[in-house]
Amino acid sequence: MKNKNFIGLLLCILIFCLGFFINGNLSLYFNVSGILIVLGGTAGAALLSFKIEQLGIVSKVLRANYGKKIKKETEIVRILIDLSIKSRMQGILSLQEEENETSILFLRRALGCLVDGYKVEQIRDILNTEIYFFRMRREDSERVLRTIADFFPAFGITGSVVGLISMLGGIGDTSVILKAVPIALTSTLYGIVFANFFFLPFASFLRERTNQELLLQKIIMEGVIAIDSEMNPIILRTKLESFLTPSERQETLVSYQKLQERFNIKA
What we know:
This is Flagellar motor component. The protein is mainly α and about 270 residues long.
């Protein structure tokens, strides 16, 4: 995770906890029974819904995406242009340091197809298939996270029902009611917090990261195909910069005078 994101997260957590502290003692919001009901129920539902291997894959994907930053679009464009003019090869050799990064693995696969002499149609078909199944795998991981996020509020309500039943069973006994009330109230709180503060943001982050990597893969595919057709590096740069936002481009716009001369426009 980027430093700015981490600092922002800590600040938001402090503000969030401050909201609890202002209205009373923080210890009032901690209840072991409520936590066990929510976490135990959600974990059991997740194990019934998904394979352990699939849950392990989701965990690895999250750790990898939060722990590593992906290359920017401008960096990928620069690498492809360097390849097209067969110079500054150190830029390619430096990719070995980030060999496990998704976009770099995709670039190496694309270059492998190019070196092995595949036809343009074959390269495009192979890389499109790679992109399709990469998106499918990521969407599957996101679906797992969103499903687990849906489990939390449900088991929070379950904890509340358990607390209410205990309260009804302890009518006339104040000590039983006082023990049951925290379970009924905190369970719903835990379910909402775990779902909306953790798992739904995890799923949203994974979708955003997936979209970024899909864009990089599209740039790589178009760049490698253009290199195979021996496109002029200047034309290639113009083509690849179409994927970038206007602020990231280094292009110089044609003057109005040249446009008038080219299209014979009279002032």
